[in-house]
Write a structure and sequence with these properties.
The chain is of the alpha+beta class. It is 56% helix and 8% strand. It contains 28 helices and 13 strands. Strands 1, 2, 3, 5, 6 and 9 form a 6-stranded mixed beta sheet that branches. A hairpin with a 4-residue loop joins strand 2 and strand 3. Helix 15 crosses helix 21 and helix 22 packs antiparallel against helix 24. The longest helix is centred in the middle third of the chain and has 33 residues. It is globular.
Length: 732
């Protein structure tokens, strides 16, 4: 428990000037800010909040957490790469016995047709070991799912049962050394031979080798190989082929070769490797033919006429990888913060406000600045992820499976996965540093989690590439608004944009803010505390950036392909920043919708604390992008300054609830497995305080040299005054 007496040291009541500002929630923002447990203070209902944080599939998450809490499922720090690989393979077999990894497969194959619950449970495995989560994702989320979603009944009956049971460990052979995220350009070919009714698979040069493949180095006996399908001299684009790669003796089959990737920066429980193929023949029926088929005579047919649309439809069926990475990254951030905040609420350092007791480090404003904004972002990421998962489940269950729904899901995945994975790396690093040397110990997990999560930012698509996909969608949506608009409408739009730029660029808006805010911090921040105002600021940034880029790219019409590409490239950074801003807006909106579900009447304490946390996230985004808002005339300097001042105030209000907010994540000691998060630091601090208190009480404490020196100086000063008194009297 946090020491209540000391934790109030830096918590202040709201200044009187703030009293006139309207509250954004049912609980008045002007109420005295007191620590949890003090009469009249807002209190977090941890149990109720913890239930909400489980999201839309609570039972699936809890079942997976129970599994992740078992010692036999957990990582053993210090194992060699070989030992770690074998342990994780054994854990996959335990997952098969448990049956939870089969949630998302059809009932006909022994599954539950529960796509959302499947991902919810799967991403919780990061609590046990990220290597376990990713290797199981390779087996069931990629290899088996490719058979399920890209294959047809023959493949489901022939190949899927062994993939589900782990009788056939499999690799997902998509990525190539030379093309990475550019899947459409993979160089591996699968050429149809009419004479034998086989596809002949080749990697024609080294850059075409399949790379970074889980299960490829040791354990995999088959792979879903993505290659350019060529028949009758025509390339029909990328398709997937079920391809055996090893025999029962564990050796590569004829024509198949490969290498072990060896030791990596993290996730060393996964046997990543590379594969290459030389005239490897597979039967015609091994083509996973849901979206494209080849008849015995070599004739190609597809239910989707457009090659581009066909390609993106195929890839959209495999979006669950990005969904699960988004959730797992948010979970890892929550774990890191739970460890760091619990430790920070107990660790003491420096005697700032007392001659005897050291300060709890979470009471220091800088420590709050390091951790609490990241806590707010993690809540936003978790709320956004649950909405994302609901959308995923609707598409894959068939409840909402139109082309538009799939496109929306793809865009959502490309927007959220980058933000959550980048946030995880940033949060785990900051949490590590916030725990000092203790955070660097492997037994406290932060360094291991940071290493394992590192590759998440390039898994399932490099984050910058994904954000570029989001930006293109935003541009497309923007242009569609005016595609059929009459010339007069477009002219009015251009004129209004010009007027808008003139208004903001002249500083009139910021000048009006300065006049309105003059002399009052409360007035400066009043507008920004309102949820609608925060939404307006965040939305305006996205729309303005997209409109600006669209205006520049309008000039590409009529240009040569090379010149148009050069013009687009000149706007690439701005596009990616706009997409990132769009993702941040999605997270803020999800947080706000989650907040709206709370009944402020029956649970005012949790409502108030979550409102403060949402405001910390929203205002933190405005502070983070303050330069843009200032340059574009959206904020006056005074109002921008007030944002930072109010954030500091929010930190003080949230400080007493920090431990409750991480407890609401619902992770037990068996999940965190970090010594510093078990209360041991509190025991050490209490032991130390009792020791010094006993010394002071018994009079056995050694004298402090500085105290003696101070006393001597005081005595000397007093003596000097005494000596000076007779002389002064004689003078008179």
């Amino acid at each position: 428990m946090v020491d209540t007496a000391r934790s109030t040291a830096h918590v202040q009541d709201a200044p009187a000037e703030d009293a006139a500002a309207p509250a954004p929630a049912a609980v008045p923002d002007t109420a005295p800010v007191q620590i949890t447990g003090t009469p009249g203070a807002p209190r977090v209902d941890v149990a109720k909040l913890s239930r909400q944080m489980l999201g839309s599939w609570p039972e699936d998450r809890l079942a997976s957490r129970e599994l992740a809490g078992r010692p036999e499922m957990q990582r053993i720090e210090g194992q060699t790469m070989e030992e770690h690989r074998e342990r994780v393979l054994g854990q996959l077999k335990l997952l098969v016995e448990n049956g939870q990894v089969h949630r998302g497969f059809p009932k006909a194959q022994g599954g539950r047709d529960d796509h959302g619950g499947n991902i919810a449970g799967f991403e919780e495995l990061v609590l046990a070991d990220p290597s376990l989560q990713i290797k199981s994702g390779v087996q069931w989320g990629l290899f088996a799912s490719a058979i399920l979603h890209l294959g047809t009944q023959y493949h489901h009956e022939t190949f899927l049962p062994d993939a589900m049971s782990l009788a056939v460990p499999g690799a997902y052979a998509m990525t190539e050394i030379g093309h990475g995220s550019d899947v459409a350009s993979v160089a591996t070919t699968a050429t149809y031979d009419e004479a034998t009714q086989e596809f002949v698979i080749n990697t024609p040069f080294r850059a075409a080798w399949k790379e970074f493949l889980g299960n490829a180095a040791l354990h995999g006996t088959a792979a879903t190989v993505f290659a350019q399908l060529i028949t009758k001299g025509v390339n029909h684009g990328v398709h997937a082929f079920y391809t055996p790669i090893r025999g029962e003796d564990g050796e590569f089959l004829p024509g198949v070769g490969g290498e072990d990737d060896g030791l990596k920066g993290g996730l060393n429980g996964i046997d990543n490797g590379r594969l290459h193929f030389t005239n490897v023949r597979v039967p015609r029926v091994n083509l996973l033919n849901r979206y494209g088929d080849v008849a015995e005579d070599g004739t190609y047919t597809s239910p989707i006429a457009s090659p581009g649309r066909r390609f993106f439809t195929m890839l959209s069926t495999l979006v669950q990888g990005r969904v699960s990475l988004d959730g797992a990254a948010a979970t890892a951030s929550a774990m890191g913060l739970a460890i760091a905040i619990k430790y920070g609420a107990e660790r003491r350092q420096f005697t700032a406000g007392s001659d005897t007791d050291e300060e709890v480090i979470l009471d220091y404003q800088r420590h709050q600045r390091r951790l609490l904004p990241r806590l707010a972002t993690t809540y936003a990421a978790l709320f956004a992820h649950d909405e994302f998962l609901v959308k995923f489940d609707a598409v894959f269950s068939g409840k909402a499976d139109s082309d538009a729904d799939r496109e929306d899901l793809e865009t959502l995945a490309a927007a959220l996965k980058p933000l959550s994975t980048w946030h995880a790396l940033d949060t785990l690093q900051e949490a590590r540093e916030a725990c000092g040397g203790a955070g660097f110990m492997a037994s406290n997990r932060l360094v291991g989690l940071r290493q394992d999560l590192d590759v998440y930012v390039t898994f399932e698509g490099d984050n910058n590439v994904l954000l570029q996909l989001v930006a293109k969608r935003l541009l497309t949506d923007y242009s569609k608004k005016f595609a059929k608009a009459p010339a007069a409408t477009v002219a009015r739009l251009v004129a209004s944009q010009a007027a808008d730029r003139a208004y903001h660029g002249s500083g009139l808006r910021s000048l009006a803010q300065t006049v309105a805010d003059f002399g009052s911090t409360a007035r400066s921040v009043d507008h920004l505390r309102d949820a609608n105002a925060q939404r307006e600021f965040l939305t305006d940034r996205v729309e303005t950036m997209i409109a600006g880029v669209a205006g520049v790219l309008r000039e590409a019409k009529g240009m040569s392909k090379a010149d148009a590409a050069e013009l687009f490239n000149s706007q690439q950074n701005e596009l990616i920043e706009a997409a990132r801003a769009h993702g941040e807006l999605l997270q803020w909106e999800a947080f706000t919708r989650a907040l709206d579900t709370w009944n402020a009447t029956t649970d005012p304490g949790t409502t108030q604390v979550l409102t403060w946390l949402r405001d910390l996230f929203g205002l933190g985004l405005i502070e983070k992008h303050a330069a843009w808002y200032l340059i574009n005339g959206r904020l006056s300097p005074q109002r921008a300054q007030s944002v930072s001042a109010y954030i500091d105030r929010l930190l003080g209000r949230l400080r007493p609830h920090a431990v409750d907010l991480v407890d609401a994540f619902g992770y037990g000691p068996e999940h965190l497995r970090a010594t510093i998060a078990t209360g041991i630091e509190q025991e050490r601090q209490e032991e130390a305080r009792a020791y010094y208190a006993e010394q002071r009480a018994s009079g056995t404490a050694p004298l402090d040299e500085k105290v003696l020196a101070k006393a001597a100086a005081k005595a000397a000063k007093a003596a000097a005054k005494v000596d000076a008194k007779p002389a002064a009297q004689a003078k008179r």
